[in-house]
Every structure is written in C-alpha cells, then in structure tokens.
C-alpha cells in the first residue's frame, strides 16, 4: 500500500478556498432567502390590497343600491330633516355592518352631503379626496371604483366610491366608503424589519467571515511555524550529534596542519597550501556552529551598550578579515541597547559577507545605524547596503530568511536564518528590500 502525504502549502490553500466558498455560499443564501421573503411580503400586500378594494367596491355599490331603493336620494329630497336623519342612520348602519371607518355622500365639489360620523362636517369639502379624484371621477361617470392606499393623520385607509341616484344628468351623489387599512402598516413594518435584519445579518456575516479568515490564516501560520520547529528540532538533534562527531577530528586535523606547517613550510616560498587546511576546518566549524544555533534557543549574554560603537568596531574587524572597505555612518545620540555583543557580531558579519559577495570586490558596502519609532516601540536599526544586483523579486525577499534557502552554488542558506534567530531572540526583527537606485539593503533592529 502506498501512502502519499499532501503538500502542506496546497492543503493550506485548499482549506482557505473551502472556508471562502462556505462563507460566500452562506452570504448568497442568506441574501436570497431574505430577498424572497421581502418579495413574498410585497406580493402578499398587493394581493390583500386588491382583495380589500374589490370588497369595498361591492360594499359601496350595494350601499348605493340600498339608498336608491329606500330613500330615492336627490338634492331636493335631502332638504328634509327627517329624510336626512333617516339616510344618516342608514349610512351608520352600513358602516357598522361592514366594519368600516366612515360612510358618506359627497357632491361634485368633494363636499360632504351626509356622513355616518358626526365629526365629518356636512357641507364642508374634504381636501384629501383630491387624491382620489380619478376614482371619484369614475364614480360620477357611473362606474364604482376604489382609491389607492392613503395615510391621513397617521392612519392608513382605503376608500371606494359608487354613484347614487343616477338620473338623466348623471348621479345625484357619490357614496364613499372608507375602511381601515392598518394591516398594511404591519406588512410595511415587517418589510422594513426584514431589510434592517438582512443588512445587519449580512454585515455580521461579513464580520464573522473576516474574523474566520483571519483566524484561519493565523492557524495556518501557527501550523507552518510548528512544522518549521519540528523540522528544526529533528535537524537540531542531528546537528548536535554530527557536530560532536565531526569537531573532534577537525580539531586533530587543524592541530596536525599547524605542526606540519611549522615543520615543512619554507619561509622563502608562499606555501598557501598549508593555510587551506585550517581555513577549510574553520569553514566547517562555522557551518556546524550555524546548525547548532538554528536548532536550539540561543544562549545570550546581553549587556547594555552603545550599538553604534559596537557596529563600528565590528566593521573594522570585518575590513581586516577581508570584507573590503566598509563605510559606517552612525546617528548622533542613539539610545543604549541591551544585546549580546557576540550575537550582534555574528549577525553583522553574516550581512557584510552577503553584501560583499553580492556587490563583488569593486562594489560599495555601507552600514548605517539609526533609531526608529517612539516610546516603547523605539528601536536601534543597523542597515547594511550594497551596490550588488539586489533581490530578483518580492518572492525571493520573502524566502531569504528560511533555513537552507540559497541561490549561491556553494552557499548553505544558513547565514540569514541564523541572523534572524539571533535578532528575534533579542525581541528584534529583520527586514530586506531592494534599494531604489539598485542594490540591496538588509537591516536588523533591536528594541531599546
Ligand atoms: P547563503 O549566503 O549561504 O546563500 P544566506 O542565508 O546568508 O545564505 O542568504 C540566503 C540568500 O539570500 C542568498 O543565497 C542570496 O540569494 C540572498 N541574499 C542575501 N543577501 C543578499 C544581498 N545583499 N544581495 C542579494 N541577495 C542576497
């Protein structure tokens, strides 16, 4: 049976996709669900409005027929008080029977002729009826009709109009029936609530999505760092064993080379062959030390010191050891920093070595030491700049601190990884970038 392990990067990106898809699906479903509920409520409102209008039109028509049959209403017949009170009572009866808000007769000037309710002043025009003029005009032409929904003094209502006492000159009056339509207010409140609820829930979903995405990213980062630590722990164990096994023979080789040099080197000839052995032994030793440094928490011995002065000292040392000319610029009045001078030396020498390798013997390498930030965020930074080709792209800049990442044929890819480990152990950080005029800058910053 074969077992394949999935590439962690692919699995992380698949998980990100799944989370994104689930969130998008939830967002779209919620929006669709709320939209369909909103449309349903609107349709329901229209249906009930049509239904109420039809009902009112038939009530108005029936009422008009009733008045015609019993009271023969004409402007002349309504001069009589007895007749007027009889018709008023009939209108009130129609109102109560059909659970209406008001029933009244109007003339062509929208004036109330007779009304079921005492507060409707007879002889006075009703200004709001102008809004219903289309339906009223239809009624004067002999066809009953309903108005649109109205809001008067905060009350919503619907009216219907029917012609009464149709003679040669058209109807004598128009009968108006008004019904309370507060129900539509409730529907509107529901619709508004739905819009507010949808907006809120979609907003919350977005917030939740952002938090989830952030958490997933943090989780994936933590997973990646755990994997890295595991890798390093395994490597550390190996490095410790290998270092132990290799260092002893290296010591013997170096000692032997020294003895051989003393015994056989001829002062009249430049016998650099004798120097190769100790140099290569030293290189192997450095490699082993890098391995060990990467594999365990660095053992720091911090001192409060002037980083500018320390950097100048290390730059001189590097020049003496063949790093070429290194110009050094230090900002005045830098605050003291607590750091391990040995660790700083190691970090800076690594950066200088890379800068020299990148810019070649003709290129320029410079260091500048300056402070950044304020208060608790204040730090002193050391930037190493060179005139080399710089980093080919952003992707590479993102990888240069990874252990074993190298673009050099004989590189180990441990220099910057070790440097970053040491800097982070001080609570500091490292950054790398291409300079606008060409060349690269790698800097480390230590908190004050
Ligand atoms: P190594 O020097 O053994 O390759 P490092 O960790 O020191 O390992 O560097 C990793 C990689 O970062 C280098 O191989 C190189 O590609 C890139 N790098 C580091 N410093 C510079 C620089 N000053 N200019 C251009 N590239 C650099």
Features:
448 residues; six-stranded antiparallel sheet; binds adenosine-5'-diphosphate; alpha+beta; rod-shaped; Beta-Lactamase
Summarize the structure.
This protein is an alpha+beta fold and about 450 residues long. It has nine helices and 13 strands.
Description:
- With 448 residues, the protein is of the alpha+beta class.
- It folds into two domains: 8-181, PAS domain (Beta-Lactamase, 2-Layer Sandwich), CATH 3.30.450.20; 300-447, Histidine kinase-like ATPase, C-terminal domain (Heat Shock Protein 90, 2-Layer Sandwich), CATH 3.30.565.
- Helices cover 55% and strands 16% of the residues.
- The chain is built from nine helices and 13 strands.
- Strands 1, 2, 3, 4, 5 and 6 form a six-stranded antiparallel beta sheet that branches. It has a five-stranded mixed beta sheet with strand order 8-10-11-13-12, with helices on one face. A two-stranded antiparallel sheet has the order 7-9.
- Helix 1 packs antiparallel against helix 2 (81-97) and helix 4 runs antiparallel to helix 5 (273-295).
- The longest helix is centred in the middle third of the chain and has 83 residues, at 182-264.
- It is rod-shaped, with a radius of gyration of 47 Å.
- The two termini are 57 Å apart.
- Mean pLDDT is 87; it is low at 1-5.
- Adenosine-5'-diphosphate binds next to helix 7, helix 9 and strand 13.
